[in-house]
Amino acid sequence: MDGCSQEEDDFIPEAHEPEVEDSVTSMQEPTSTVHSQYQRKSAKKRARNVIEDHGTKAMAVLFGGKGTDSLASLRYNLFSKKIITAKSFVTPERLPPTESSTKYHCQRVYFQIVVWTGKEGDMNTVDWGWKLVDNRFLPVMTNKTAAPESLLL
After folding, report:
1. What pLDDT score was predicted for residue 45?
2. In 3D, which of 114, 110, 108, 115 has the Cα closest to residue 140?
3. How many whole angstroms separate alpha carbon 28 and alpha carbon 44?
4. 138 - beta bridge partners?
5. Residue of 70, 71, 90 lying closest to 80 (CA atoms)
6. Domains of the chain: which residue ranges?
7. Separation CA 102–CA 112 (nearest Å)
8. Please, what is the Cα angle at 98 between 94 and 103, to 5 degrees?
9. Model-level pTM?
10. What is the pLDDT of residues 36-59, one digit of tens each?
11. Any residues with CB less than 8 A from the CB of 69 and at least 6 apart, and which?
12. Separation between Cα atoms, residue 14 and residue 12, nearest integer Å
């Protein structure tokens, strides 16, 4: 034997005994729950990245660029062209949105589509481009400042 007496051996439960299986199962449940939550979070993050990526490409195309153009470079190039030809002030509304504002816009569009189709389930509104202010949902416009902090002081 392995150094245990027969009496000691009787106290070592076999793996197939119900109480051992129950305890192993109960130890696995939190791990599998955490793992499945991680997988869901990971899948949500990948889905969000796909939504934002496609939305950014579509926005670039809407403003005359290619799907491969970054909004920042497209914004700069269009601004430069408008400055050269402008007879007055160039309004920012005529420029492509920033990448940050496009990201939140795409999240809100996706969330609205999901709500319209009745498939929102447990989606949290504030995770999809909205913020709750005074008991009202308002759109998150960007997470960037208008200018560097050194200029805003």
Report:
1. 87
2. 108
3. 24
4. 131
5. 90
6. 14-152
7. 15
8. 125
9. 0.70
10. 666 677 888 888 899 999 999 999
11. 60
12. 7
